[in-house]
Amino acid sequence: MTAGALARRGFGDGARSVRLMAESGLDPGSHAVIVDALSAAPDPDLALLGLTRLVERSTEAEEIRTALVEDAELRSRLISVLGASTALTDHLARHPGDWRELLGADAARLPGTEELRTGLLHTVGADPNSPAPTADLSDGEPADVAHALRLAYRRRVLRLAGRDLTGLQSLDEVAAELADLASATLEGALAIARAQFPDDAARCRIAVIGMGKCGGRELNYVSDVDVVFVAEPLDDTVDTEAALRSGSRLAAAMMRIPGETDAEGTLWEVDPALRPEGKNGPLVRPLSGHLAYYERWAKTWEFQALLKARPIAGDPELGAAYVQAISPLVWQAAGRKNFVEDVQAMRRRVEAHIPRAEADRQLKLGPGGLRDIEFAVQLLQLVHGRTDETLRSGGTLVALDALSHGGYVGRDDAAEMADAYRFLRRVEHLLQLYRLRRTHLLPDPKTASGQDELRRLGRSLGFGVNPVADLTATWRRRAGQVRTLHEKLFYRPLLKAVARLPGEEARLSTAQAGARLEALGFTDPRGALRHLESLTAGVTRRAAILRTLLPVMLGWFADAPNPDAGLLGFRQVSEALGTTPWYLRLLRDDVRVAERMAWLLGTSRYVTDLLLRAPESVAVLADDSDLRQRRNVELIVEADAALRRHDTAENQVAAVRALRRRELLRTAAADLLGVTGVDGVGDALTAISAVTIDAALRAATERVAHQRGEEPCTRLCVIGMGRFGGNELTYASDADVMYVHAPLPGADTAAATETAGAIVRELTRLLELPAAEPPVRLDAALRPEGKNGPMVRTLDSYAAYYQRWSASWESQALLRAIPIAGDAELGERFTALIDPIRYPKDGISVKTLLEIRRLKARMESERLPRGADPTLHTKLGRGGLSDVEWVAQLIQLRHAHEIPELRTTGTIRVLDVAVERGLLDVDDAATLEVAWRLASRVRGAIMLVRNKGGDLIPADLRERTAVAAALGYGSEDEAEGPGERLLEEYRRATRRARAVMERVFYDS
Fold first, then answer.
1. How many Å apart are CA 579 and CA 717, to the nearest integer?
2. 370-384 vs 411-435: helix crossing angle, rounded to 10
3. Does one domain contain both 323 and 245?
4. Can you give the residue ranges of the PII-uridylyltransferase/Glutamine-synthetase adenylyltransferase domain (predicted)?
């Protein structure tokens, strides 16, 4: 085969490859399968050079070539090893006969843990069945026996690499076998140490506790083996101090053997730095010493390290006793103060110490690296493992699977993280396998050698055409995925909330729940317990997530005014949504949603009712931006789409009313959560009501036209009045309206009026039709002649009426009139018509002023409910909404004709302009505004809490306390409680407002 042909098959130096093939006795014809295998190796040149060295050093060269031709499995394993690892190639060059380690059925079989231990103990001449295996040094020096142990270890690694590189073992199996092999090696090294120091071995029992990756059975090819030593006297005749000195000598001797360098090189370092007090602490402690330290002095990171603790060598009973004693401390560590914050801070410190030049190539420590996965998994384990024993595993992948199965991590997130972990560990293994050196750093692609190494890695991972680019792109993608998931899981607020729970409360039990519920303030603990049992029963994923979440949520329900109603509402919403995946993810991954749900459901029957009508609306609680008022244009576009989407007027308006219901929920939630204020509530409620009425008017018009077989002969406009016109709607407000129409040219006025009336009747029917959505109640009582007057008038009829019959109260009512739906041009004409009436050119006469004052006094005496406390009625009471609004409206009637800025429908805007123009003292205006805003908020809160309107502050203490809580009065505000605090502030604000009103309105 020519040099060019070899180059085309992936060999870097074709001429050199031809020479090496000749030197190794390979004939491209008779050995074609070998050449094919070499060209498919991770590094064909490296594999060919290694094979040449092997056959040159071996006395079995021809046997090797024949076996490679005849045995496809041997050929695949041996050439994969030669093409991926210069260190194992060096081993084969030193020990040519070890090629047989890759031959036959044994080479493809996964060895068991005990097989590895037994094999390496036999290597040092120790009895595997002895309680304290001791090496046989009769035929050699300790160094010779240690060399034999290291050589046996290398042979096992060679055999493992053959299986690993040819896909016979999964990453999980490879890592576990490496950990078991390290444990067996330490067992052999300890046997040598016992033989070296027989007196010490006779004084103590010693156990080696594996930590880190060895403890978790997820070791790398080359990694420090983290250990902790525990020793006890062999019997009562031995002094403890003497036993510990002996244990220290045995431990030190054992540690030296894997770390020494000879012809086989260094295997790995044994690192005891994770012991109590670290490098400053004694190497060996008794079990009681370990316990005393961890109970009193241990830091958060030490419990995180102990999560993977596992006996790996030495006295098995002592090792088991250590783990049994330490485990309860580990799984209660999350209850320590600032535990979660400490773990998070430690991860940030690790990341901060990475050299900047290496950060984007660090497989282990860098952003998106292995540590991101491991820290996230360990933190979740430690927090939730307090009560869920299925999470108590030292292995990252096993733990991740348990977290997913238990609902603590989403299935997709867990699968994505597990795939990324396996990829990163696979790359790490291949990097280390090359020279059998500890490294976690990807080669630098800016160098030629780095490009060569990346090419070898890429080919090892199965990337074909462009292995360097494909490997780099996959690494970037995986790192990005890991970083995103790490931040999502590692900084999840639920972790802190669960960690702060007392240990006994982290998971509910039937026996404890009743007392806890009563202590939290549930008035019906048995009923609450039934709700909890219903939510958490069974083995479903939903139940698992709720079992984790509800202990935390109980505290949030308890903070709400009505915990029982909150829990019931939560159960109803959760059952309505069932196993909806996004709902469960939302609760688990964004704890703020669960906290907000608990508060809203335990505070507001109004919100609960809206949520139960459409439980999927809970999604808006995830982000403050979703709670803010939507732009009018967005609402109009959505309403238009609803009209186009449905065929019948009933379905069209039902869809628009559903839009309104979503906006009502959005507004109420934003109000109760402090995202918006009273002005925002008025704006949002007015806007969605106007959009709903306008869309319903179009549907009604189309329905009447269809029924009559012709287009309406008139144009119709809806005029907003009262709080609707003032952009100050509340949750309980009806929509005060008037209707004006204008017949089309040539149309009969009577027929046009009858058609307009039919449209209004249809509009009212559609908006108040019994349905799942809240109705929109239209109130036309402010029309000319009130309830006795016609529902619909022409523009000319309004003009005639106002010119001849208009009363002073009607001029005052028109101050808030504004077109809100229907024909815009007609609305402008109506506004032009009423402006001279509501903004009289010469102001108002003394007679009109007296009439207005008498009307105000009569309203207070006649319309205030019998027996009602006038200081607590938010609308008609002293210093309430009516007082402030009538002051503002009187200012408008007197001065709006000369001050255009007063021609507004909003109360607070009138007060502001009055101050700017010197019509009202600034302090008086501030006093009126404070009272108006407070009364508006209280009125809204009453509706939110009770889900029915009411103008009186509740007399019932529990209900008043709930209203106060909805307004943000905390239980810690005053000793007398939030309800009394609300009363005090309300009475003070309205008393001051009443004094201003009497002085300004009555000139007193």
1. 47
2. 130
3. yes
4. 344-490, 872-1001
